[in-house]
């Protein structure tokens, strides 16, 4: 069975799940079905992906009971604020066709501190009402986490950040570990080649990396499998995205080999700070 990470909410999250960013409705529904067939029990979507309803259809069509699947979705930037957040989670639940999610995340921090804190008030209510079994954040830097620490009360169960061997996020991981917050990796394989970030999209330079390729060859596995093992061995929650059933199955078939200390050292040398998305402080998310 899939290793799980205990969350500060008292629930636990399967360490490996399926991501569906940039997947169309049709692709998403099929990918969710393929993932559940392959043994996945964790799906990560977001209101902003526009495919929550398709995730819901994939879940409903499967013979795997809903309560056996860990479902994550996220609050979009325009929905910051107390009342907006309460309305947003209800809309997501409706689109997903479920009466709770396992994890509800703030998708991006907001520069407006007071409004961000009002959103967090709502997140706490959402957790207390059971509409989400756990709540958390994405793309929070240590200084954003500090705002919630200073507020007192509930802390996020997870911080989902861009993280892979090019961008190992040591500061965020150290802070999260100190606070009992689990870290989830987005773009764990180095992202898509048609990334919609900024004027120029940056290519995936990890799946074709020579070091990753050499390690994969030594173990008789694929580069994607090496990368997923790297996240697992670092205690991270990892949600690789694919819409191809054979890759979805391949990405789950990572429990039959182990990376060596030497492999880890070689991969550590790839940490050059390459970021595909925007830095959370550069993104001016002044929600209307
Ligand atoms: P696709 O959906 O066409 O399979 P990330 O998870 O880092 O955001 O990036 C995933 C990217 O890597 C997607 O573009 C996905 O494309 C591709 N991908 C996912 N799994 C594999 C795999 N096992 N081998 C090669 N490419 C993969």
Short description:
By secondary structure, the chain is an alpha/beta fold. Helix content is 39%, strand content 13%.
Spatial order of strands in the largest sheet:
3-4-5-6-7-8-9-10
The major sheet is characterized as: 8 strands, parallel
Beta-strand content estimate: 5-15%
CATH fold label: TIM Barrel
Ions, cofactors and other ligands present here are: adenosine-2'-5'-diphosphate
Q: Which structural class fits the helix and strand makeup?
A: alpha/beta
Unreliable runs, pLDDT <50, ≥5 residues? Answer: none
Distance between the termini: 44 Å
Rg computed from alpha carbons, rounded to a whole number of angstroms? 18 Å
- What pattern of helices and strands is seen along the backbone? EEEHEHEHEHEHEHEHHEHH
**Oligomeric state of shown chains:** single chain
Tally of separate helices = 10
CATH architecture: Alpha-Beta Barrel
Instruction: Kindly state the number of beta strands.
Output: 10
Q: Averaging pLDDT over every residue, what do you get?
A: 94
Tell me the CATH superfamily: NADP-dependent oxidoreductase domain
By CATH reckoning, the class would read: Alpha Beta
- Number of discrete domains: 1
InterPro entries: AKR, Aldo/ket_reductase_CS, NAD(P)_OxRdtase_dom_sf, NADP_OxRdtase_dom
Active site: 49
Site (Lowers pKa of active site Tyr): 74
GO molecular function, one term: oxidoreductase activity, acting on the CH-OH group of donors, NAD or NADP as acceptor
